[in-house]
Structure formats: C-alpha cells, structure tokens
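Quarterly update from the structural biology core.
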Amino acid sequence: MPKDCHDTALRFLEHRERSAYEVRTHLAAKGFQEKEIEEELHDLEELHYVDDARFCSSYIRYAMGKGRGPVRLQFELREKGIDVARIQEALRESFDRRTEKDAALKEARKLLERGEGAADEKTTAKIGRKLASLGYHTDVIYEILGQLRKAESSI
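Predicted structure, tokenized:
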C-alpha cells in the first residue's frame, strides 16, 4: 500500500519541529513528487505545523542552551534551509554583544572547572579553540581569553 504524503509528513513532524526544507527533503527522499510535496508544505504551513520563523527561534534557544554561538548557529540554520535574512533577524533577537560574551565566558569557565587547570597559555589556547568550534565571534573569544589571562595574573 503506497504511503500518503500527508501521513508521512505528520510522522516526520511528530518528534520535533522541522524546517520546510527538512520536510521537503524528507518527502522527496520518500519518493513523493515535487508538486505533491509543495501542496503538502503549503497545507502544513497554513496549519502552522511548519513555520520557519518559529523553527529558527526555537532552534536558537535550544542551541544556546548547548553553548553554541551565533557563527555556528548561522551555519547550522543555513544547512536546515533557513534563509539568511530570517537567520539574521532571529540572531539579532537572541544575541547581542553582551549575551554572546556572557555565553562564551560561561563556556570558558566550564572548561576551567573541568580540570583544565589554570589559565596558562596552553589552557587558554585550548579554550580559544573550543569557543571557536562552538561558533563565537573572534573578537569575543579574544576578549574572554584576555579576561582569563588577567584574572590568572592577578592571583
């Protein structure tokens, strides 16, 4: 018995929110025709089952909780098919310089608490690499590393 496009889409959406691109890609991989997929996406968007703006905001909140920075979030959301303008708008709402700096400092402190030791050159380099991989802006990383070095030298 051939699967119904609507049922397939709903099953895909039942576990977590998805972007329109993710739904489109999933349905295409299941063998549904482009016209049928576009009609289904239109219906899902009308019902607010698929909403890229909501998905983007939700994903940012989730990823911020995991310690990810705005550079990485922008990359991940682009991979999920979210357009750049929507990403930029959502990031502006969630990250300002202070928020990014606070989040990066929190991640740096976690590394220090996990037994990375004092903020010597080797440790600060490791923290810098970790912050870069989490997607923080370079200027924020340098500022955090400067604070760690300054705190270490005042002890």
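The mean pLDDT is 91.
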